[in-house]
Amino acid sequence: MQWQDVCEHPNLQNLPFKIELNERGQILMSPVKVYHSAFQGRIVRLLPDNGVVLAECAIKTSKGTKVADVAWASRQRFKLIQHETECSIAPEICIEVASASNTDGEMQEKRLLYIESGALEFWVCNEPGNMTFFDAHGALIHSSLVPDFPKTFEIVD
Questions:
Q1: H or E element: which one contains 4?
Q2: What is the largest CA-CA distance in the chain?
Q3: What are the residues facing 30 on neighbouring strands?
Q4: What are phi and psi of 65, to 5 degrees?
Q5: What 3-state DSSP class applies to 99?
Q6: Is residue 126 in a domain?
Q7: Nearby residues of 103 by Cβ (< 8 Å), 6 or more positions away
Q8: Coil, strand or helix: which one is 45?
Q9: Residue 147 located in a structural domain
Q10: Of 27, 28, 71, 99, which residue is most buried, by most CB within 10 angstroms?
Q11: How sure is the predictor about 72, in pLDDT bands with cuts at 50, 70 and 90?
Q12: What CA–CA distance (Å, rounded) separates 138 from 87?
């Protein structure tokens, strides 16, 4: 199955799950909890408005279509991907809100896949609201692209 098929399949519309494809075209579904959506919303509000913020951003990778919880693209990159079904090149920043069921290995794999697909940074938000930042070389003290992004935050101020 290809991502376009997933997007157009009538039985896969309005599901309460995050959907991705693996490298064999198999659908992977992950349910999300309220806190997960709340962190996504908070991250969206904290990102700078000098680019385009994308929620649930589908990205073509070497291991199928992965969906970043939140992504940020420069206006220049957004012009390249705005009409695509899945991003042929990843937005500059790809962000995952980790759930208790996510393993470190899953997050590492997504980091590598997004960076291989063109992301400059990969961020992870854990359940308490702590952020970790990565680039192609590994962990960062803070984001190079958004240096004032908080390292920790609450869902509600």
A1: helix 3-8
A2: 44
A3: 18
A4: -90, 120
A5: coil
A6: yes
A7: none
A8: helix
A9: no
A10: 71
A11: very high
A12: 23
- The C-alpha atoms of residue 89 and residue 139 are separated, in whole angstroms, by 22
| 49 within domain boundaries | yes
Per-residue pLDDT, 154:
85
Domain that holds residue 44: 31-140
Residue 27 phi/psi, 5-degree rounding, is -80, 130
Give Cα 25 to chain centroid, integer Å: 19
Count of beta carbons in the 10 Å neighbourhood of residue 68: 25
Measured distance CA(97)–CA(113) in Å, rounded = 16
Alpha helices in 48-140 (DSSP H): 75-81, 104-116
Mean pLDDT score, 113-128: 96
Query: Could you tell me which of 97, 81, 75 has the C-alpha nearest to residue 153?
Result: 97
107 burial via Cβ count (<10 Å: 0-12, 13-18, 19+):
middle
Number of domains forming the structure of the chain: 1
The pLDDT value given to residue 156:
79
Considering the entire predicted model, what is its pTM? 0.84
